[in-house]
């Protein structure tokens, strides 16, 4: 059973035969991808050329010249007999049609691939734009809510007036406190001066008594030349 199963897997229509197919990043895959790209561009160029009016005009001129030459020219110069129904011309046109159809289909497939890539890019761009739009919408809603919570001009004026009144009251209280402190300092200075005045007067009254004591005359036995307060040894 395993042999038959392996045989079925190996010989399936969707299984590659032979060796492993090189990827696009490898050398063989890169060469094959480059060849396919060149062939695709070449086929698209042919398909675009066949889809122009000049191709139809040239093909019509070619067929007319072929028919006229093989009909009017002398018999030895004819290469496609009219009696045989212009067999060579029929084969040429059939060959051209048989090659034109696959080339046109290949060009259409490449165009479909480009359209698919473009559609994917457009989808991603649309998703980014949608995300940006949703973000901006949320920001606008948040700004509206914040603006609703902001006070208006009347409220601001009332707040400013109350702040000015509080500031004026605090300034008035500070001025009163400064005036009271100055008055208290003046009263303390006056009290200190009044307390110091009796002591100064007493000191002034005691000073003359000391001078009188020093300048008092000596007794009858004292030396008149002796100075008051001098040492007796110095006088001797």
Structure description:
Mean pLDDT is 75; it is low at 1-21, 206-222, 224-230 and 232-236. Helix content is 78%, strand content 0%. Among the domains are: 36-124; 157-185. With 236 residues, the chain is mainly alpha-helical. Residues 176-208, 215-236 have a biased composition (Low complexity).
Radius of gyration: 64 Å
What amount of the residues lies in strands? under 5%
State the oligomer: single chain
Identify the overall geometry: rod-shaped
| Class of secondary structure makeup | mainly alpha
Distance between the termini: 161 Å
Main sheet characteristics: none
Helix content estimate: over 70%
Count of extended strands: 0
Which stretches are poorly predicted, pLDDT < 50 over at least 5 residues?
A: 1-21, 206-222, 224-230, 232-236
Overall average residue pLDDT = 75
How many H/I helices?
6
Task: Give the H and E element order.
Answer: HHHHHH
